[in-house]
Amino acid sequence: RPEVKNQIELARQSIVIRALAQEYLAKNPVKDEEMKAEYDKFKAQSAGKEYHARHILVEKEDEAKAIIAKLKGGAKFEELAKASKDPGSANQGGDLGWAPPDAFVKPFSDAMVGLKSGEFTQTPVQTQFGYHVIKLDETRDAQLPGFEEVKGQIAESLQQQKLQNFQQDLKKKAKIQ
Q1: Positive or negative, the Cα torsion across 32, 36, 39, 41?
Q2: Helix or strand or coil: residue 40?
Q3: Which of 19, 38, 73, 104 suits a disulfide with 109, CB 3.0-4.6 Å?
Q4: For residue 1, is pLDDT > 90?
Q5: 77 contacts 71 by C-beta, under 8 angstroms
Q6: What's the sign of the alpha-carbon dihedral 158, 159, 164, 165?
Q7: pLDDT score at 45
Q8: What's the rounded Cα separation, in Å, for the pair 136 and 23?
Q9: Would you say 114 and 104 are in contact if contact means Cβ atoms under 8 Å apart?
Q10: Contacts for 118-126: CB closer than 8 Å, 24+ residues apart
């Protein structure tokens, strides 16, 4: 039947393509110096500060102002965070963990970076998600995994890049009708 012949042909092509890719990678392995260069590039881009912040997300500005008033009155941030509309952090006292500023939307990030450790925003911060009350727990220099920890991931990524470049070169050289 034609559909069976077609499936056999597709399987044959798939096997040939996989063999070609394996042969190419065997002849063009990722070198340690390539991985180290990629790691150094990542390290340079990721340098800077990380922030450990908490937030309480509400829909209305008035709600956020009421929360700020309660905080000024001595209420615990972690307790008030249970009412947050952010399901991911509400049960953890609003905890967002450690992250660089660019992990957040700009208005949030700008407000967070302007705080000192232990401080919370004195006015609600509006984003597309609603109104935030942000508390900064602490800051630190960015913590990056060591080269050995990410070496496998870097090697895999570089292999994929090499294969993509190889495929593009083959397409450029091919006569396609």
Answers
A1: negative
A2: helix
A3: 104
A4: yes
A5: yes
A6: positive
A7: 72
A8: 52
A9: no
A10: 120/68, 120/71, 120/77, 121/68, 122/68, 123/65, 123/68, 124/61, 124/64, 124/65, 124/68, 126/61
Tokens, residue 8: 């056999």
43, 141 Cβ separation under 8 angstroms: no
Pairwise CA distance, residues 117 & 122, whole Å: 14
Task: Answer whether 0.90 is exceeded by the pTM.
Answer: no
Q: How many CB atoms lie within 10 A of CB 2?
A: 6
pLDDT beyond 90 at 49: no
CB within 8 A of 101, min separation 6: which ones? 48, 49, 51, 109, 112, 113
User: What is the widest separation between alpha-carbon atoms in the chain?
Assistant: 79
Under 8 Å between Cβ of 137 and 116: no
The CB density around residue 97, as the number of other CB atoms within 10 Å, is 13
Cα 3 to chain centroid distance, Å, stands at: 43
What is the C-alpha to C-alpha distance for residues 43 and 155, in angstroms, rounded to an integer?
Answer: 16
**Residue in the block written with tokens 């090499």:** 162
> φ, ψ for residue 31 (rounded to 5)?
-90, 155
| Whole-number Å distance between alpha carbons of 72 and 25 | 62
10 Å Cβ neighbour count for 173? 7
The residue with tokens 């912040």 is 53
- Report pLDDT for 141: 84
